[in-house]
Design goal:
The complex is a heterodimer of chains A (419) and B (301).
Chain A lengths: L1 H4 L2 E9 L5 H11 L5 H13 L8 H4 L3 H6 L6 E6 L3 E9 L5 H9 L3 E7 L6 H12 L4 E7 L8 H15 L6 E6 L23 H7 L12 E8 L11 E5 L4 E2 L4 E5 L4 E9 L2 E2 L3 E2 L3 E6 L10 E3 L6 E12 L5 E2 L2 E7 L2 E14 L6 E3 L3 E2 L4 E14 L10 E5 L6 E7 L1
Parallel strand pairs in A: 1-3, 1-4, 4-5, 5-6
Antiparallel strand pairs in A: 2-3, 7-8, 7-15, 8-14, 9-13, 10-11, 10-15, 11-12, 11-14, 16-22, 16-24, 17-21, 18-19, 18-23, 19-20, 19-22, 23-24
Chain B lengths: L7 H19 L3 E4 L4 H14 L8 E5 L5 H14 L3 E5 H6 L17 H11 L4 E3 L16 E4 L27 E4 L7 H11 L10 E8 L2 E4 L13 E7 L10 E3 L5 H10 L17 H8 L3
Classes of the chains: A alpha+beta (419), B alpha/beta (301).
Pfam families (chain A): GTP-eEF1A_C (PF22594), GTP_EFTU (PF00009)
Keywords (chain A): ATP-binding, GTP-binding, Nucleotide-binding, Nucleotidyltransferase, Transferase
InterPro entries (chain A): CysN_GTP-bd, CysN_II, CysN_NoDQ_III, G_TR_CS, GTP-eEF1A_C, P-loop_NTPase, Small_GTP-bd, SO4_adenylTrfase_lsu
């Protein structure tokens, strides 16, 4: 019990298309970790029989919506959960087709790790490049390339080595910090949870062992102190008459009582009087903790302000260079006005210029374009109506990300990573 | 730097508190949908933590089907008093009396589906623009696709194929007049997380969740409490059983499990070894493969 409560949470994303074995792999992880319940298996068996399959289609476990089940495709991000005695896992299961790039980006935005599936018979394909590019663009800290269907290539070490070499050559062009490779057969179970008896030449760890042990404690930024204020807590009671607490989530660095801090945009400085949650004092607050902070001095602070350290500040600017993933049917042209949301701040913004878009399959830049459409990834210049306190996305995924909202429809139309 | 990490329950707690605070910041009239079940009790506990030392700045809404366990109602009233929050009760009986809905008939009659009308009427009456609920993605396959911030049109409907993408910590709660949001702060929790958290935080629960003796009947393999709301079929007999509940819905549709577990530790052990989902005991989900998705589209919880 006590060990389980100390477990860390690992969020990972899987991207893949219908026949690369993604659903089988997820089914295998859930099944072998005993996270599928009998009534769920019963329901899937019944549906498989209804569809006339002579096997249990584990993809029916993840495809939850009526239209997905009818069409046999995943159209949205589905979240799945499982736990082992060592860790708790959240899977963001996303479709792999190019028309679902926006769903892959969504799933990737909160992931510590990405699983990229490669069919051992086919080697690297367009979609391998696409998924890897998205993992690198979204700065997923860890990538595991699973060379799947090894049973169909006689568990050949040569086939595996060639794919590893090809991938390494390609991924050197990308910005991925930590890449691992595992030869697996999701169908037969080789190297997923149990070590394979068919690939004695492989000396690395199984996929599950890797998921359980990959070092994720430093995936959050613990260097640059960033505390965006969500709201101000003022109880107005006799006991807490003068209490003025700043509620929010730590987006970076380590805050301690007594630390000197600076408030943006006002520029006032003060010291941290206390950090607490529910009246329990907190010695050191770091990402992703939700806390309530009080300061020594009475300063006018409101939602959208950011508390930082005087010697380490984000850039305060109204001009952003952003890699944006466009998520809406309506195309984006330059000079379009939108709402931008960055940490707890929201204001008007205008896309001044579309610099280029990226071909997500070849990584080539396409320049001189006047508009971008759904699922396009492009570099754009944005002017905001109010100053934004930004970090580069590669430095901090929380203070370096923005979403764009259409002011008429209120839909989220774009996801941006600050360069 | 390696020591700076949160155990998973702390991370889930931090995420839920962030979402609850975001709701209060982004909406004018939020509320918490309180069923009396363990998930909404956990939600109320998280809300208390989020705003301490201030009080929870929104009311609890309870949709009372009139078929609740008496334990649930007693627990609700005590909790509301302890937290010092406003309680709004939407009554299904009233909706029936006003002719807004028609009571189902027959032995499997339930007021489950009727709740949706009462819920939407109550949200409209009090002009609630964000209703927080304790639904979790691991409960049911349609819920696995649910967002934290889930948009509802002016008819209260969910459009699962046209949901807003949700990225990082950035939640978009913008809406037009007449629309509202459902928000699910504990989306990422599993049944096990909820139980472990209840143990860690020593949260009080209604006695239903612990092993007790009760008069029950077995219908379609589900153990149901015998009550005035249930019509016995000729072949059904009432038996005294030692049971507890894994979820807490209406008396006529919520199935009990045979269990001797009378402490949180024993319940957690039981949850760890159990082989069926908690909603597997809910008759309302057995009305078809996409029963939950269909109800959710109409505006169900």
């Amino acid at each position: 019990m006590s060990i389980q409560q100390k477990n860390q949470l690992l969020r990972f994303t899987t991207a893949g298309s219908v026949d690369d074995g993604k659903s089988t792999l997820i089914g295998r992880l859930l099944y072998d970790s005993k996270s599928i319940f009998e009534d769920q298996i019963e329901a899937v068996k019944t549906s498989s029989e209804k569809k006339g399959f002579d096997y249990v289609d584990l993809s029916l476990l993840t495809d939850g919506l009526k239209s997905e089940r009818e069409q046999g495709i995943t159209i949205d991000v589905a979240y799945r959960y499982f736990a082992t005695p060592k860790r708790k896992f959240i899977i963001a299961d996303t479709p792999g087709h190019i028309q679902y790039t926006r769903n892959m980006v969504t799933g990737a935005s909160t992931a510590n790790l990405a699983i990229i599936l490669v069919d051992a018979r086919k080697g690297l394909l367009e979609q391998t490049y696409r998924h890897s590019f998205i993992a690198s663009l979204l700065k997923i800290p860890h990538v595991v390339v699973c060379v799947n269907k090894m049973d169909l290539v006689d568990y050949s070490e040569e086939v595996y080595n060639k794919i590893v070499a090809d991938y390494e050559a390609f991924s050197s062009k990308l910005d991925i910090k930590d890449v691992s490779f595992v030869p697996i057969s999701a169908l037969k179970g080789d190297n997923v949870v149990e070590r394979s008896k068919n690939m004695t030449w492989y000396e690395g760890s199984t996929l599950l062992y890797h998921l359980e042990n990959v070092h994720i404690a430093s995936d959050f930024n613990h260097i640059d102190c960033r505390f965006p204020v969500q709201m101000v807590i003022r109880p107005h009671t006799l006991e807490y008459q003068d209490f003025r607490g700043y509620a929010g989530r730590i987006d970076g660095g380590i805050f301690k009582p007594g630390d000197e801090v600076k408030v943006l945009p006002s520029g006032f400085t003060s010291k941290i009087k206390s950090i607490e949650l529910n009246g329990t004092p907190i010695e050191e607050a770091f990402s992703p903790m939700s806390v309530t902070m009080t300061l020594e001095d009475e300063i006018d602070i409101s939602r959208g302000d950011m508390i930082v350290r005087p010697n380490n500040q984000p850039e305060v600017t109204q001009d952003l260079e952003v890699m944006v993933c466009w998520m809406n049917q309506k195309t984006l042209q330059s000079r379009t006005k939108l709402i931008i949301k960055h940490t707890t701040k929201e204001c008007q913004a205008m896309v001044k210029e579309i610099q280029y878009k990226v071909d997500v399959n070849t990584l080539h830049r396409i320049e001189d374009i006047s508009q971008i459409g759904m699922n396009d990834i492009a570099r754009v210049s944005i002017r905001t109506a109010q100053p934004i306190f930004k970090d580069a996305y590669r430095r901090n995924r929380l203070t370096g990300s923005v979403i764009l909202i259409d002011a008429n429809t209120n839909e989220t139309v774009g996801a941006g990573m600050v360069i | 730097m390696g020591t700076y990490y949160l155990p998973h329950l702390k991370e889930l707690e931090a995420e839920a508190i962030f979402v609850i605070r975001e709701v209060v910041s982004q909406f004018e009239k939020p509320a918490l949908l309180f069923s009396g079940g363990k998930d909404s009790i956990v939600l109320a506990h998280l809300a208390k933590k989020a705003f301490h030392p201030a009080k929870i700045p929104f009311p609890l809404i309870h949709i009372d089907t009139g078929h609740n366990f008496p334990e649930t109602i007693a627990f609700r009233d005590a909790l509301v008093e302890k937290l010092g929050v406003q309680l709004i009760v939407g009554s299904v009986q009233e909706s029936i009396d006003k002719g807004r809905v028609r009571e189902e008939t027959g032995v499997n009659a339930s007021r489950n589906a009727l709740q949706t009308v009462t819920l939407l009427d109550t949200l409209e009456e009090y002009k609630i623009d964000a209703a927080m609920g304790g639904a979790r993605r691991d409960e049911e396959k349609a819920r696995a696709k649910e967002r934290f911030f889930s948009h509802r049109d002016e008819f209260g409907q969910w459009d699962p194929k046209n949901q807003r993408p949700e990225l990082w910590n950035l939640f978009n709660g913008r809406k037009h007049m007449g629309e509202h949001f459902r928000v699910f702060p504990i989306s990422n929790w599993t049944e096990m997380d909820v139980w472990q958290y209840i143990l860690q935080e020593q949260i009080d629960l209604p006695s239903l969740y612990f092993s007790h003796e009760r008069d029950c009947i077995v219908r379609d393999g589900v153990i149901l409490a015998n009550s005035e709301y249930i019509t016995l079929k000729p072949e059904e007999t009432v038996e005294r059983m030692v049971v507890r509940y894994r979820t807490c819905g209406d008396m006529p549709i919520t199935g009990a499990v045979l269990s001797e577990a009378n402490t949180l530790e024993l319940i957690i052990q039981e949850v760890a070894t159990t082989r069926t989902t908690e909603r597997g005991t809910r008759a309302d989900d057995k009305r078809g493969e996409t029963a939950m998705e269909d109800r959710k589209k109409q505006g169900y919880f």
